[in-house]
Amino acid sequence: MAALIGLVIFAGIASLLLGPVSIPPARALAVLGGHGDEVARAILLELRLPRSILALLVGAMLGLSGAALQGYLRNPLAEPSVLGASNAAALGAVGALYFGLAQLHPALLPLLAIAAGLLALLPLFLLAGRAESPLTLILAGIAISTLAGAAISLALNLSPNPYAAMEIMTWLLGSFENRSFQHVWIALPCIVIGSALLLFDGRALDALTLGEDGARALGVDLGRARLRILLGIAIGVGGAVAVSGSIGFIGLIVPHIVRPFTDRSPSAILLPSALAGAALLTIADIGVRLIPSTNELKLGVVTAFLGVPVFLVYLVRERRLW
Amino acid sequence: MVTLSIDNLSVALGRRSVVRDVSASLEAGSLVGIVGPNGAGKSTLLRAMLGLVAPSAGHVRIDDADLASLPRAAIARQLAYLPQGQTLHWPLAVERLVALGRLPHLAPMSGMSATDIAAIDRAMERSDVTPLRGRIATELSGGERARVLLARALAVEAPALLADEPLASLDPGHQIDVMNLLLDEAQSGKLVVAVLHDLTMAARYCDRLLLIHAGRLVADGPPLAVLTSDRLRDVYGIRARIETESGRALILPMEREAAR
């Protein structure tokens, strides 16, 4: 845990100092002290700082929601997108791009994404009804996810010109390029609310190790726990996707990477997953900036290249437990 | 000390009526066995007694409080439950798994107290799983896992324990251990209710048997009064030898025999 906190701080600082333009630590310190030069100031405070904060926030949210969902659905394959919240939020953002609303005001795209993420909860509750089996939820989530995915493809299909289609594609691949403090102020409240809701139910998740009856006999009110978890995912992941685009893998692999270092109970991996997610996404974002290429590489690509090898090593070591 | 009263309880799962009009009052200090053929509604009756399925008619009361009006956490402190089967969704260490039994007692956001840790140690000791404490529960044999899950239920230290097939996948030695343990619990003043398939075990250890057939309570009383050859034929469809040894019944199923 201490090592993880250290890693997050290290990644955060590195993310401020590293980039295509090199700023030595002395110059950076001068800026933070309030008397640096204009150029360094602009780069650090207006370009890199919001980007670093967003990478930390979004990474933490994705890691945490993956851990909470794997616990709640009792399924090691669960990740934030299984309930359809990611795809629905992406659809909201794509809608904003497609109809040109994104140009009207920069806040419209993220707000539409969050609204769409929340809206996707409604059919989830209707479809899953009062059934408490995790499979019903997963199936309902897949239905929503598929529908939103199809609508995104339709938007790409019908987009008026190749440039608009490119814009949508670029957004879908996920990036923290050109994000400002405005994005931070949109994402921060969503992620704080979402995380608080997800962290609340650690004990309920532990009790679910014994199945639904076992958990309820231990005093868990499963209906309320489900409401909190679904809302937490929709608000938190909606807010994250709204500012970063779709970033896959983090929510799936981070809980698996931290699990062997804990006692493997669902509550024990919640916070470490948030920290590891923040560190992994920030390091991936540094990679995106430093790897020389004509276009900036897309974040989802780098997280996959970084995370999947670690994930595979884990699987080889832990497979006997499944 | 707790009394569980079941009044005219009926339960329907979907449109199928599974428990029909069952009434019984189960007092503290007794070991009550629920017996009956597969699909008779034993497990559903037990789940209804815990408030895990809502009755379609009738009530279950803990002392004088209707189960439906109690919050889940309050029920959890009164009734410990050992579910059927050995569902375990994460590869937890044995000690961590047994510790789940303390969840009903933990205040929000607080860790475990010395009382909790003592209860966990006691529970592991009693069901003979202390040597397994560091092992991963999903890697244990079926019998070891059954005992670990029993320890989990004991760790609740509730005034009543409701166990669904606690003897499944245990060898004869451990079956006797578990029955002795349940009897101990009952004699120390708790109410113990167990769904059992082994009629000889049920007859030897239980003070009272509830015989369930097609959702109805067809007999309720001391084992020798409940397990008569006519009832075994009508309910289980078997001919059985019933012998008595030091006042306790030995039931030996011999062959199929159609109900008359």
TrEMBL record, chain A:
* SUPFAM superfamilies documented for this protein: ABC transporter involved in vitamin B12 uptake, BtuC
Major location category of this protein: membrane
Which Pfam families does this entry report, sorted A to Z? FecCD
Q: Which key words are in the record? A: Cell membrane, Membrane, Transmembrane, Transmembrane helix, Transport
User: Cross-referenced InterPro entries, in alphabetical order?
Assistant: ABC_BtuC-like, ABC_transptr_permease_BtuC
Q: Where in the cell?
A: Cell membrane
* Recorded topology in the membrane: Multi-pass membrane protein
Q: Does the keyword Repeat apply?
A: no
Which protein family is named in the record?
Belongs to the binding-protein-dependent transport system permease family. FecCD subfamily.
Q: What is this protein called?
A: Iron ABC transporter permease
UniProtKB/TrEMBL annotation, chain B:
Gene3D superfamilies, alphabetized = P-loop containing nucleotide triphosphate hydrolases
Q: Where is the ABC transporter domain?
A: 4-239
User: Which keywords does the record carry?
Assistant: ATP-binding, Nucleotide-binding, Translocase, Transport
> What Pfam family is a match, any one?
ABC_tran
Report whether Translocase shows up as a keyword of the record: yes
From the UniProt record, list the coiled-coil ranges: none
Q: What molecular function does GO assign, one term? A: ATP binding
According to its UniProt entry, the function of this protein is described as:
Part of the ABC transporter complex HmuTUV involved in hemin import. Responsible for energy coupling to the transport system.
Identify this protein by name. ABC transporter ATP-binding protein
